[in-house]
Amino acid sequence: MWKGEDYTEHFSMEAYMRDFYSVENILHTESPKGKMRRFAMKTFHEIFEKISDNGNHGNRLFSFGTGPGVLEVISASRYFPYITCSEFIADGRKEIVKWLEKDPNAFDWSPFIQHISKMEGNESEWEEREKQLRDAITAVIPCNSLDPTNMTEPNYLKPFDTLLTAGILDCTCPDIATYRAQLKLLIGKYLKPGGHFIQLGPIEADSWIVNGKTFHSLYMTKEDVYSAWENAGLKVEQFYFVNLGEEDKFSDVTYKATFIGKGIKL
Ligand SMILES: C[S@@+](CC[C@H](N)C(=O)[O-])C[C@H]1O[C@@H](n2cnc3c(N)ncnc32)[C@H](O)[C@@H]1O
């Protein structure tokens, strides 16, 4: 079973994009991956609307482990004009840059931008939202959750207003003790006091498969997550869950539910 440090050699970005960002699966069928991604899009949309409610949410957001796509920062870009994306694997960073530079071979995010614009009540103006997203992503840099302190980009020096991480720590942390320690480091270093933290992850996971290769996924209960958040100096504000029933278990991913949590750094 492959873990965080093995991704460079064994993880296929191409296969991940094909299988986990499929427009057909996510937007047009009732597939389990679609259920999870649609839950994420809707929940991020709701969370960012709430965060913007009082108008003093700041303007810098750090996406820790963005992956090869921009899906998780579409909603955020409506409110945060300075988004730093990060990804462990160089191929993943290249995919984001290709999209930013309008490379004809870049992945087409427009169906997802349209879908989210519709939630925002502005479907007809999705092209402006696409531009807003491109303008907001001001940096795409390397990250490593196994060594989160070793980030020397000037962008990192100042803690961010919001920190978002989706499906990273569960892939890279071998056990709960490491998850607790890494979360504490991330929150301590990259989030300002009073800033928002958002995490997406699996509950009671075991493993996941990309391109026929099995990768580790950390087994965490809801209680493990709440306790790690408190230990990291976060006040838990909201937790959202989507359960995967027997009928919609992924064939290539094992877990019971997906959570998205939002907290504030005390
Ligand atoms: C399940 S994907 C999540 C990607 C993205 N956030 C998304 O939701 O599509 C797991 C990601 O973990 C990244 N990863 C693997 N090892 C890592 C490490 N040591 N530090 C940070 N990220 C790592 C992989 O490159 C991959 O992009």
TrEMBL record:
<dbReference type="GO" id="GO:0005829">
    <property type="term" value="C:cytosol"/>
</dbReference>
<dbReference type="Pfam" id="PF01234">
    <property type="entry name" value="NNMT_PNMT_TEMT"/>
</dbReference>
<dbReference type="InterPro" id="IPR000940">
    <property type="entry name" value="NNMT_TEMT_trans"/>
</dbReference>
<dbReference type="GO" id="GO:0032259">
    <property type="term" value="P:methylation"/>
</dbReference>
<dbReference type="GO" id="GO:0008170">
    <property type="term" value="F:N-methyltransferase activity"/>
</dbReference>
<protein>
    <submittedName>
        <fullName>Uncharacterized protein</fullName>
    </submittedName>
</protein>
<dbReference type="InterPro" id="IPR029063">
    <property type="entry name" value="SAM-dependent_MTases_sf"/>
</dbReference>
<keyword id="KW-0808">Transferase</keyword>
<comment type="similarity">
    <text>Belongs to the class I-like SAM-binding methyltransferase superfamily. NNMT/PNMT/TEMT family.</text>
</comment>
<keyword id="KW-0949">S-adenosyl-L-methionine</keyword>
<keyword id="KW-0489">Methyltransferase</keyword>
